[in-house]
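Revision sheet: structure tokens.
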Amino acid sequence: MYQAKMYLPLGVVAEILLVVGVLAGAAEPATTSAPATAVAIDKPLIAHWAFDEANGVCLDHSGNGYHADPADSGPGQLGRTSGIFGRAMRFSGQHRLAVAGAGLPDFSELKQIGFSAWVQVSRFDRYNEIFRKEDGDRRVLFSFQDEGKTLALGLNVKGYVECDAPIEPKWLLDGAWHHCAATFDGRSLRVYLDGREIASLQRSGTITAGGSAPGFIGSTNGGECLQGMLDDVRIYADSLSADAVARLYLNGIEAIGLADKQVAEHLDRVYQRGTDLAETLAAVRRNLAEHGIEAGSRLSQVLAARLSVDFGQPVAQLADFTGIAIADFLAARGSEMELPAAQRLIEMLLEYKPLTKSQWAKQTPEQIQRWQEYDAIAARLEALKAQGEAAQFSPEWVRLMLEAGSRIDFRPRISEPVAPYVTPHTPETRDATAEQARASLEIDWLHQAGQNTAPMQIQGGRVWHLTTPVSVGSPSPERIRDEIRWTRELVERLESRGAGAVSFADDLAKLAAFDEKAAELAVGDRELYFQVRTLKRSIMFRNPAIDFDKLLFIDQPYPQGREWQHETRHRLGYQAVPGGRLLVLEGLDPSGRLTQLMPQPPLHGSFWRPDVSFDGTKVLVSFKPHNEKAFHLYEIQADGSGLCQLTDGIYDDFDPIYLPDGHILFSTTRGHTYVRCMPPTNAFVLARCEADGKNIYLVSRNNEPDYLPSVMNDGRVIYTRWEYTDKPLWRAQGLWTVNPDGTQVQTFWGNQSVWPDLLKDARSIPGSRRVMFTGSAHHNWFSGSVGILDPDQGFNFPHGLTKVTADLAYPESGNGPVDPIESPRYHASGAYSAYYSPYPLSEQDFLVSANRGGKFVLYLMDTDGNRELIYEGAHNVFYAQPLRSRPARR
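Predicted:
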């Protein structure tokens, strides 16, 4: 049964406990200013983050090595401050504090669990995580929800369930520390606040948890971010009794009591009011440094309150502009807070400043004068930076931030937040060395064999991405024999299709020798496995269907902002994050030669799907420059010359394709429509223009979006359409066709189907009427399983539908009552959470991006499950396609 209990706020409880002398059993309060020691509970710890380091990595004190890395967060978003037990972690704005390594902490053997954390909240949003590891229905979470009206423990115990404890936001928004705890003992989930149980939910069983997602402290992968501070966060591999929770709570109250008595004395010594906030804040910080006083959380709160009384509006503006509470500025050392905060505001002030001749040509005289004014403010920052340590207590920092902030049109960040500002940066484009390329292949081969451990630094000096699987094990004899069998089946398929075009006699002889060695194995043999995979790779790339040696693709960060994975929101300019590249790879291998076509200096930016001209000499692409707000269409020669912008304006134009008649078809927000379930979200429909981008007219007139058109073998255009008529908002994204001139709109497949939820990335299979696609999801565009449709067999589930990636269910909708599989010989090969943008090369072979440990990498794959890595980018590789000529179907 669900129970809720009322409790007294922490400040009242602490005052009562001090009066009755409960704290530590002491007759008189302690006089030392040293921090109290955190109590130890006789329970096995999974992780314990005390945040006592001066900066950098948050060490795990459990002994399990689950250290947390704040490196992905921007200035002022994460930082140390004084806490209850030494230091605490301060969270502000959007941040990402991840446990280092894929799938960590390891919850796979978890049966019971206990959480303990000290929290000081500065504000609530819809969701604010204390800890979350998002493995689908195996998720583990401890979070505030409903704008601070709920404190929830979420676990999978015979299905995912949450114990939701009702609370009042004002109880925690009192500027004080509060103790939050939660536990599951095999019978009930329980939630505690300030030492008292406030909710319980009966649920007998054991926990089902674990997966490839990393754990996050204070967020869920950079979203649903906690605002405030955390101290002494613990996760136990056992339940916590009510007595254990009370001990943890009283231990913190004792620490708070030891610190309070010094606050009044320190206040008189450091507070010196000046003429404005900038002067006063600078004087207070200077006095703190000169007297050797650390602005702990209690002193910072009192000083912040005093500043708010004396300078209310500028204090509120400074916090709003920077996303940093005034107490955090007080606790900072030197200019470690002011410099990055001021730098970020100046960057945001100049974010949309023109950089190219064409951008400057569009500016009015008034706009040019404004940019000159902004440049003068930026010059003042550079002068301040040049002073070095002499400027650490200068009031000019705050004055600059207030002046810059008052001129910035800030992004929405509370209601319907969009992607936050990030400093524009384009990864370096460089070719891998032979050693690095070989290491990439071996890492991937071992991933496919299931030999994954935490990331490590490999020979050659390259440090791999935290989510990249790295192995220290050896594939089993069974796996090696399977690879030999799969390679032999691959040769049989290619020989039957190629009619002697390629000879594999020498390869089969080598396979036979490998088979003899494998038959004698009692334990794994990494070198033999690598020999088999090297041979298999050679065979796969001698497939007659691989008649090209250049690929075009984008390497792109994920979008950000609220519901960034949503099927519509993810595509829009206000969700885009700079850092994308339009690349050509010559040589279908990690050792291939890279050419970056775009962006070209001085611009950075974001991309969506490109298209290759029918003669293979030009590329169409949608690109959003980092200093503009919308995606536009561009054309560039395949060698990187002749860049030309085709469209412009406030609208998002993306996913263009060349039409056989010389026109261009693309998706655009020029229809002025919006998604019905998300009114602030622009919808996009199909439009057509001439080859130079002129004479744009709308092809479709529907309210909901049209996605990713492509030209079919018969000359029609196939695309994804969100069809809302007489349907609910989900399970309504089927495939449609239209003639290139906009006539004859027809449903192609799935308009009356629930499975899959959303069909996208549709492309005709060469020489066939069949179409390959990704079965994706309404709420997660970046999930999916690859399938094939045969329109000659039917138009709705299950007729004409087969699944290629049989090991992965269609997201959200599931597989349905039946799940037809394309190849009975399909085998899984490694763990992949999603597939994206398949490009068919034949009935059996295709290019595809696959999510390996949180990052999409590019493979050559076949319908039997064989796959070989082609390229791993800095971010995510999407929309790979051969850079070659192709027939223009009319």
